[in-house]
Amino acid sequence: MNIYVANIPFKATDAELKELFEQHGEVASAKIVIDKMTNRSRGFGFVEMTDGNAAKEAINDLNGAEFQGKSLVVNEARPKTDSYSGSNGSGGAKRGYGGKSFGNRW
């Protein structure tokens, strides 16, 4: 089961997040999302647990729990959706150079 974790302290590491969830069962992965521009934590991440029952227990126990001075928000992750279609009115195709759309300049 994939778990969404929000309000993660910016100084927390993937290993610390994994250790927190391992108290409830086997953790396949724990990843804090990093901003590509600043290379800093965005304050949320995902934990994948192999056992669904252990994952539900972790969600119940850790939602609202304090972690490094902040109160975590923990929920079952929802499937990723395409919230941005990338469409520029031309059926989604991008024009111009480097994938950028310059529109009608001429």
Outline:
With 106 residues, the protein is of the alpha+beta class. The chain has helices spanning 14-22, 52-62, and strands at residues 2-6, 27-34, 41-49, 66-67, 70-71, 73-76.
List the helices and strands and how they pair.
Layout: E1 2-6, H1 14-22, E2 27-34, E3 41-49, H2 52-62, E4 66-67, E5 70-71, E6 73-76
Antiparallel strand pairs: 1-3, 1-6, 2-3, 4-5
Describe the 3D structure.
This protein has helices at 14-22, 52-62; strands spanning 2-6, 27-34, 41-49, 66-67, 70-71, 73-76. The chain is α+β, with helices and mostly antiparallel strands. Strands 2-3-1-6 form a 4-stranded antiparallel beta sheet, with helices on one face. The protein has a two-stranded antiparallel ribbon with strand order 4-5. The longest helix is centred in the middle third of the chain and has 11 residues, at 52-62. The chain is globular, with a radius of gyration of 19 Å. 17% of the residues are buried. The model has no long low-confidence stretch (mean pLDDT 86).
Order of helices and strands: EHEEHEEE
Q: Look at the helices and sheets and give the structural class.
A: alpha+beta
Number of strands: 6
Gap between N and C termini, in Å?
A: 52 Å
Rounded mean pLDDT score: 86
Low-confidence stretches: none
Largest sheet: 4 strands, antiparallel
Strand order of the largest sheet: 2-3-1-6
Individual helix count: 2
Shape: globular
Compute the gyration radius: what is it? 19 Å
